[in-house]
Amino acid sequence: MTDLPSVGVIVPTHNRPELMRGAVEAVLAQEYEGRLRVIIVYDRADPDPSMARSAGTRCVEVMANSRTAGLAGARNTGILALDTDLVAFCDDDDEWLPGKLTAQVDALLAQPGAEFCSCSIAVDFDGAVNARLAGTDTVTHEHLLRSRMAMLHSSTFVLRRSALVDGIGLVDEEVPGGQNEDWDLLLRASARQPIVHVDRPLVRVRWGRTSFFAQQWQTKISSLEWMLDQHEDIGASKVGSARVYGQLAFAHACLGERRVARRWARRSLRRHFREWRAVVALMVSARLITGPAVLRVLHKYGRGV
């Protein structure tokens, strides 16, 4: 018998059976000696009972999202159904790479009191793959105020279930459009304890057409404004607030709301004159470039606005 902690992996899915099967198989392929319980949560879709299986210390279960429709509700449905020591997330269009789970559990156990572990990612955009590294093995609350740190993707999250349920709190289901709920969770977690980070690209994250959030500008605006309201310490960070204001400027520019975009851009540059998102937003609002063209270039190199 192993004394490694048991791990429950939540895979939310919505009408993407082939991608979901690939995500689940990559989880099951992990060479982890502890108990592994995978829950596929079907969001606004009927569960496929043929996906359920059990062999030794590993099992796959299927269930319907019983909470708010969307990623947050689906993840919370899985969290509350689990009885494992640790909880991990994997989106249905992502892929855990070999060694991911063992590396993160080892890192988490090596830090007494640690509650949350992440790892870096490899971004796959139309076949172009770029590693996104954090450059640190410890992510602090201050790091996350300054930057969302895109490499801390939800599919990299491994958390102690007890801390998640009784301390950090569940995934917030009130975030507009289900965007930025991961950043919200990271901020709440890092306010309690620094996040342990394995700075290796151990998850392949697909960007582009598989993303449900691509270019939903009004939803991005609402979720960013929600984050500013919920986390006042973002506004206290010059660099962090300038980044969010620049993102808001870019989103408004892409919607053709030029006056609002310019107002957010000026606010961003007053906070931090080197904030490039504000400059790009001004260029989009002036129709010198287009938002989709900017995103294509950034995504090619594994970056985003």
Give your account of this protein's structure.
This protein is α/β, with parallel strands linked by helices and 305 residues long. It has two domains: 7-207, Spore Coat Polysaccharide Biosynthesis Protein SpsA, Chain A (Alpha-Beta Complex); 217-300, no CATH class. 42% of the residues lie in helices and 21% in strands. Strands 1, 2, 3, 4, 5, 6, 7, 8, 9, 10 and 11 form an eleven-stranded mixed sheet that branches. α1 links the parallel β1 (7-13) and β2. α9 (238-254) runs antiparallel to α10 (258-271). It is globular. The protein starts with 6 loop residues before the first strand and ends in a 5-residue tail after the last helix.
Largest sheet: 11 strands, mixed
Low-confidence stretches: 210-214
What structural class is derived from the secondary structure elements? alpha/beta
Question: How many alpha or pi helices?
Answer: 12
| SSE arrangement, N to C | EHEEEHEEHEEEHEHHEHHHHHH
> In CATH terms, what is the architecture of the largest domain?
Alpha-Beta Complex
Quaternary organisation of the protein chains: single chain
CATH class category label of the largest domain:
Alpha Beta
